[in-house]
Amino acid sequence: xxxxxxxxxxxxxxxxxxxxxxxxxxxxxxxxxxxxxxxxxxxxxxxxxxxxxxxxxxxxxxxxxxxxxxxxxxxxxxxxxxxxxxxxxxxxxxxxxxxxxxxxxxxxxxxxxxxxxxxxxxxxxxxxxxxxxxxxxxxxxxxxxxxxxxxxxxxxxxxxxxxxxxxxxxxxxxxxxxxxxxxxxxxxxxxxxxxxxxxxxxxxxxxxxx
Length: 210
Description:
Elements: H1 7-10, E1 21-28, E2 34-41, H2 44-54, H3 65-74, E3 77-83, E4 89-96, H4 102-105, E5 109-112, E6 115-120, H5 122-131, H6 137-142, H7 155-166, H8 168-176, E7 178-184, E8 190-196, H9 197-201, E9 207-209
Parallel strand pairs: 1-7
Antiparallel strand pairs: 1-2, 2-4, 3-4, 5-6, 6-9, 7-8
């Protein structure tokens, strides 16, 4: 299967996507640079799945912070900081100085009139998926997301698929999972959007968030 950058697990987006709950902040500065921060933590069932498939021992962090940091730098981010405050939590801070990261080249994120805009659609998500860096692709592949391979599947059908492959506990965690996306603009205004992870993984329409 094709590979994907860490940030598809987040939103969006991102990466995105093994977290039971995630928070993503994007901040546009006056000089055109964009600050990104992410904080997400896996649920117990997803943690068990990752440890089993990735052979991560108990007592060790679920996420490979050095690998994630290297991929973000290779993707054009600077001032990158990746930590695991807890064994199942991932915290990321980074800056896109030239709007050349996969967020922007896939048109997943854009700016207009000095404001941030997030463009969620099957097309932008597929573009991001097909062109992003390879690290951490397995996490997304494990979730069997239909949006990245052109499948049309309802949320209920997707949860049934997850339940059949991984059990009802994992499906229940995914059903509850939410991404909180905060967009901050240079004028001080901000908007907060709560996105269902299952809705994102089965997206069949276009959503524009400002």
